[in-house]
Amino acid sequence: MLTLPSLSLSLSPCLKMAIVFFGSLPSPPTRSSETHPPSRSTRYTTPFHPRIFTRWLNHSLHSHPSDSTHCRSVSCKAQTTKAFAVPRRNVVALIFSTALFSGVSLSDAAFAQPSVGLREYIDTFDGYTFKYPQNWIQVRGAGADIFFRDPYVLDENISVELSSPSSSRYKSVEDLGPPQEAGQKVLKQYLTEFMSTRLGVRRESNILSTSSRIADDGRTYYQVEVNIKSYANNNELAVMPQDRPVRLEWDRRYLSVLGVENNRLYELRLQTPENVFLEEEYDLRQVMDSFRVNKVVA
User: Fold this and answer.
1) What predicted TM-score, i.e. pTM, was given to this entire model?
2) What's residue 106's pLDDT?
3) CA 263, CA 278: separation in Å to the nearest integer?
4) d(Cα 136, Cα 156) in Å, to the nearest integer?
5) Fewer CB atoms inside 10 Å of the end CB: C or N, the chain?
6) What is the DSSP letter of 262?
7) Helix or strand (DSSP H, E) at 34
8) What is the pLDDT of residues 233-278, one digit of tens each?
9) Predicted confidence (pLDDT) per residue in 40-72, tens digit
């Protein structure tokens, strides 16, 4: 058995080295940078963020060099930024050595998913409030009353839809029927929106859960969770079935919260890839539970 009596390596110095090193990761794009993307030579300096570090490390450990064109925006920017010059093997060696000599498991040190914190959005004009992850950015012109998305996982977003005040006369969310019936209506609406005219596209959907709850404001809210998968093939015009292999395009979870006030139906919508939902479930459920509809004073 190998012993290292003279070795006094602790976790804190190694983590400090990692924090200093990853302090050069690129910051999330702002609205102005989306319109005028920065050049490859632009250097970014932001504080170390555990969630960004985790996603980069997951990509580094499981990606192949040939997959570099398919990496997420964070890792792609990191690879093309001059400040990010330390070889990836050295980074992996640092993490493994830290876990080995400190007695802390690698999963605890590198793959923890801390909460990013939530920020409250209040719309006094239409009468609703909710919380959303504070690092998400607002996107205008998306068609919803309000729309935020994750700056790195572009398939992850949140929005609010409202029924027309002139054509709806809702008194309670129970006007939609029981939660199971409301879930069927929500799923039908999603499938209608995602209807595709492409050949060979197939959608599979499933209602995961429906529930009803009374919030602290005394109002009743419905919650609906749906999974939708999209399949397609790259050779739609092929004659033989074996020449039309089907592949999974995307696998997403859709979470809806329904509430009624001001004679209008309010729907909070959360969209996230299934694999991301497993990592961020705690935060996303907090967002769902935070949704409230309020009386609008004329």
Assistant:
1) 0.61
2) 40
3) 36
4) 10
5) N
6) T
7) helix 31-35
8) 877 666 676 767 888 999 999 999 999 999 999 999 999 999 999 9
9) 334 344 444 555 555 555 555 554 444 444 444
* Angle, alpha carbons 192-193-199 (nearest 5°): 80
Question: E-assigned strands of the chain?
Answer: 118-123, 128-133, 137-138, 146-149, 157-162, 202-214, 220-233, 246-261, 264-273, 292-293
What is the gyration radius of the CA atoms in the chain, in angstroms?
23
> What separation in angstroms does the CA of 3 have from each of 6, 7, 93, 103?
9, 9, 20, 14
CB-hemisphere CA count at 13 Å for 243?
6
Contact indicator for 74, 55 with CB cutoff of 8 Å? yes
Please state, in angstroms and rounded to a whole number, the distance separating the CA atoms of residues 76 and 224. Answer: 35
- Edge-first strand order for the sheet with 292-293 is 118-123, 128-133, 292-293
Query: From the CB of residue 87, how many other CB atoms can be counted at a distance below 10 Å?
Result: 8
Name the helix (H) or strand (E) containing 188. helix 179-193
Q: Which amino acid is at 14?
A: C
Which residue is associated with the tokens 């390596």? 9
What distance lies between CA 138 and its chain's CA centroid? 14
- The Cα angle at residue 99 between residues 86 and 23, in degrees rounded to 5: 35
